[in-house]
Amino acid sequence: MNNTFYLTTPIYYVNDKPHIGHAYTTILADVLTRYHKLRGQDVFFLTGLDEHGQKVQQAAAKRGMEPQDHCDDLAPNFTQLWDKLEIKYDDFIRTTEERHKKVVREALQKVHDAGDIYVDEYEGWYSVSEERFITETEKDSGEFRDVKKLKEKNYFFKMSKYQDRLIKHIEDNPAFIQPEHRKNEILGFLRQPLNDLCISRPKERLNWGIELPFDSDYVTYVWFDALLNYTSAPGYLSDEDKFSKWWPASVHLIGKDILTTHCVYWPTMLFSLGVELPKTVFAHGWWLMGESKMSKSLGNVVSPLDLIEEYGVDPVRYYLMREMVLGQDANFTMESFIKRFNSDLANDFGNLLNRLSGLIGKYFDGVVPDPGELTEAEQDLQARATGLDEKIVELIDNFHVNEAIEETLQVVRFINKYMEAQAPWKVAKEDVKAAGRILYAAAETLRICAVHLAPVMPDKCSQVLHVMGCENLHSAWGGLLPGVKLKEHEALFPRLEINE
Ligand code: MSP
């Protein structure tokens, strides 16, 4: 069995300060990474920054800076936020790094040598904000800003040549574009004849980009450059062993806004290069504020930094992962955030730890009791706890992250019910041994739940495991050792009072 897993996020435009939308994809990648590591896979998680193109050049000019200085100045906004959010990537690629530029130049030359690039003069409507030629219909839609007529000689990639092959690939590989409705969207798009892709920009108009290896008057179109990051980072054309270890990527995580570039441009580029396609491109929906997409240009963004300062990292990660059904849009509201926090984290999860450590403190001097022989009630609990392994693997393989969390929370809720039904505080008065059995079973089940929630809330779950004296992430029954003294702890998630 292939035990490697390679996943990527989009590389973000360096101009924007990262908002919750950007943080979301990156947290999701981190959570998936941790789930895959938990099952023993060797994982490579890549993220980074998209630093070329017109928008960056203009933003730098506005600040009176050289584009490279502008990028160097802004890049730490991302890396520092990722650190704060406990995001543990394996590589961070910036498209202005030489290791990437070299691969882009060589790949362009290869595509050129394969006869897939030609030069043509093109006249049409050009959208400065979108950095591309738009069709007459798009122009008439009025949705594009800064539109002007432009006549230019440019280089084109023969994307049309690969149209049929791409359709066949999508049809033969149902896992390639997910979820299903995005696959249908792309197949619908491919029913029209596919245009070739303009992959150059004349330097007189834009010089912040990677120079074409076969014409120094031009730089590379930013998407042709950016998409190659997924291969340049794991060693394409530079480190054969590393590249063959990780490629093809297991999954490119993207937002639905960049579906066409990833499901049409990118695979046809790879066809031309003779490189295998990624196994899956998964497009998630948007975080909305009310009816509209959260985006900087609409001025309705939530700052991840403000949120984590106020509520801590883990609740923010938890909310984003629990609240969005992957593939659909989700609404960000403070009301739902606080509700989730109080019901799932404070009431169900955090209180349970308090209760258990309190009772073990009171009746066993804080020392984990011996379970003795389990009765049917504990065996039921044990089966629910150990059954999580298989369920979660399947849910995560299908990108049902919210359901993987919910499965675990249901077990947590079940422990609470079990405690109510067994009432160990009453039992302890007559039969200490039986109370020990009940408390052990409840605590061990909670430990196993903490292991399964650790990918989402690494910090709080490791606190739980620390209290129980078993820091490793083993989900098999019996990890909690009788005789171990529980460590003192504070409330995990103190309830939030709603401020009017
Ligand atoms: N630079 C390109 C991607 C190149 S990948 C080879 C780009 N960058 S971006 O900064 O605009 O980031 C886009 C990604 O950020 C989206 O695909 C999505 O993953 C994430 N999101 C940005 N806003 C979002 C929401 N409101 N909601 C959810 N995710 C969003 O496009």
CATH C-level name of the domain at 334-500:
Mainly Alpha
**Estimated share of beta-strand residues:** 15-25%
- Class from helix and strand fractions: alpha/beta
- Share of helix, binned: 40-55%
**Structural Rg:** 26 Å
- Mean model confidence by pLDDT: 95
Regions with little confidence, pLDDT below 50 for 5+ residues: none
Q: List cofactors, ions and other ligands.
A: 5'-O-[(L-methionyl)-sulphamoyl]adenosine
CATH architecture of the domain at 334-500: Orthogonal Bundle
Number of strands: 17
Q: How far apart, in Å, are the first and last alpha carbons?
A: 55 Å
The coarse overall form would be elongated
What is the CATH topology classification name of the domain at 334-500? Isoleucyl-tRNA Synthetase, Domain 1
CATH H-level superfamily title of the domain at 334-500: Isoleucyl-tRNA Synthetase, Domain 1
- Number of DSSP helical runs: 19
Q: Tell me about the biggest sheet?
A: 7 strands, parallel
Please explain how this structure is put together.
The chain has 500 residues and is of the alpha/beta class. The protein has a domain at 334-500: Orthogonal Bundle (Isoleucyl-tRNA Synthetase, Domain 1), CATH 1.10.730. The chain is 50% helix and 15% strand. The strands form 4 sheets. Strands 1, 2, 3, 4, 8, 13 and 14 form a 7-stranded parallel β-sheet that branches. Helix 18 (432-453) packs antiparallel against helix 19 (458-467). The longest helix is centred in the C-terminal third of the chain and has 31 residues, at 334-364. The protein is elongated and about 90 Å long. The model has no long low-confidence stretch (mean pLDDT 95). The chain binds 5'-O-[(L-methionyl)-sulphamoyl]adenosine. 5'-O-[(L-methionyl)-sulphamoyl]adenosine binds at residues 10-13, 16, 21-22, 24-25, 50, 226-227, 229, 254-255, 257-258, 286-287, 293-295.
